[in-house]
Amino acid sequence: MKKAAFALLLLGLLALALAQRYFGDQELEQIKTAGKAYAEVFINQRPDQALCSLHKNRLPADLLPKFLEEQRAQIKYPQSGKLMGDWRKGGAIFNNLQRANCFSCHYGSPVHLGGDVGPSLEKYGLKRGQSEAIQRYTYEVIYNAWAYFPCTVMYRFGAQGLLTPEEIADVVAYLLDPESDFNTKPAVGSR
Amino acid sequence: MRSYKHRLFLAGLALLGVLGGLFAYTQQQKPLDPYEEAMRQRQMYLETFGVLPGELYAEEGKELFFRKGPSGKTLEECDFGLGKGKLQGAYAVLPKYFPDSRRVEDLESRVYTCMQTVQGFKPAQIKRDEVKAITTYIASFSSKAKMQVVPKHPQELALYNLGRELWYHRAGARDMSCAVCHDQYAGQRVRLSPVRSPKQGLGSEWPAYRFEADKLYTMEDRIAFCYESIAIPAPAFYSEPYIALTLYMLAEATKAGKSFEELPFFTR
């Protein structure tokens, strides 16, 4: 009885592994001709990346609940428990092309003309307020956008280690704090 | 000596390009359309020097094409897709399967292969810059040619599939894929740059001289540039991922009836 359950579990895991595999063995060999650094990116493909790729970024409804749950589980919070840090530090991160590059996709920065890949964040803090729920939502979207928008183009800043929890809290403050330049100064391009 | 002079000349051209570019930028209130800006720069090079930088690379490539290798042979002995010595339109059918190397090759890897198998060079003797120049020379015979990349051979089909999978695969710390930018946002602009999809003719401009970088970029260089911009280490030159992606993009563009630009192209 136990054995059968174990075998079933194994089968299940195998099916899962197969379902989430994206490149075949021969393809992985071809990818390896490109050198170690490149190949590692694809050999160590994350199952969630493979899943989004496989479904061309539109996950079928039956896969969604589990996917969202797994993405949520990746979110970690600052040690201090405070989700709003130092808005000045957050501004330096938001407006830096090499760091977070938020402005390339979002309109609203008083420093750089923003892009329109994502929704406008103009005067985000004045429009949304600073409630606990808004702080949490904003923090979590930045930490792991896939927990709210599965397979979206926005980078998963915390989940992929691009920003630390503390840095994300600084960015949250930059967006939400009513004193922040983001909310007191006009966005570049506004009239 | 010749090549030293050539470099100096190119450096001079570049300086002028940069200064000219800066000037144009400060004079203009609205950001210039990148395409118009490239055409303006191109015109300036032509009026000042009577020649475009890309043509100089092609010229250098021509000399290297007719240079004898250790085996005593020139690249005239290499089949670039339409048979030995046939260069007219050859670039437009690549990448394709070559029975002699038993491999699907794009023009760059084909040059690299023939420099070894026909001319007798050792891999370590082959300079990337030389391959780029020869590629530019050969591609210039397909200026404005209609693309004709139709995978048929089993290896071509397999590589096309790999190319399509690499195209859609979300990878690296930014979860990016070629498709996210070039399909989802095709026709829009990523920081001023218009992004095209394969069906809109993506890839029709290479090899090209990019005046912003003051360098010649082949298709492989251009793909490497996009990989670097999404923090994925670029593949080694002449490796399968480049050939696969090129095959995928150009086969899609072929289906849409696209042609190459003037090659070598002049762009930003």
Number of distinct beta strands of chain A: 0
Largest interface: A-B, 32 and 34 residues
CATH superfamily of the largest domain in chain A: Cytochrome c-like domain
Roughly how many Å apart are the termini of chain A? 72 Å
Residue-averaged pLDDT of chain B, rounded? 87
* Average residue-wise pLDDT of chain A: 90
Q: Write the CATH fold name of the largest domain in chain B.
A: Cytochrome Bc1 Complex, Chain D, domain 2
Main sheet makeup of chain A: none
Q: Name the shape of chain B in a single word.
A: globular
Task: Give your account of this protein's structure.
The complex is a heterodimer of chains A (191) and B (268). Chain A has 11 helices and no strands. With 191 residues, chain A is mostly helical. Chain A folds into 2 domains: 43 residues, no CATH class; 98 residues, Cytochrome Bc1 Complex, Chain D, domain 2 (Orthogonal Bundle). In chain A, helix 6 crosses helix 10 and helix 9 packs across helix 10. Chain A is elongated and about 55 Å long. The termini of chain A are far apart. About 5% of the residues of chain A have low confidence. A 3-stranded mixed β-sheet of chain B has the order 6-5-7. Chain B has a two-stranded antiparallel ribbon with strand order 1-2. In chain B, strands 3-4 form a two-stranded antiparallel sheet. In chain B, helix 3 packs across helix 5 and helix 6 packs across helix 9. Chain B has 3 domains: 55 residues; 78 residues, Cytochrome c-like domain (Cytochrome Bc1 Complex, Chain D, domain 2), CATH 1.10.760.10; 114 residues, Cytochrome c-like domain (Cytochrome Bc1 Complex, Chain D, domain 2). The longest helix of chain B has 26 residues. In chain B, a hairpin with a 4-residue loop joins strand 1 and strand 2. In chain B, 44% of the residues are buried. Chain B has 9 helices and 7 strands, in the order H-H-H-E-E-H-H-H-H-E-E-E-E-H-H-E. The radius of gyration of chain B is 19 Å and the shape is globular. Chain B is mainly α. Chains A and B meet through helix 2, helix 3 and helix 4 of A and helix 6, helix 7 and helix 9 of B.
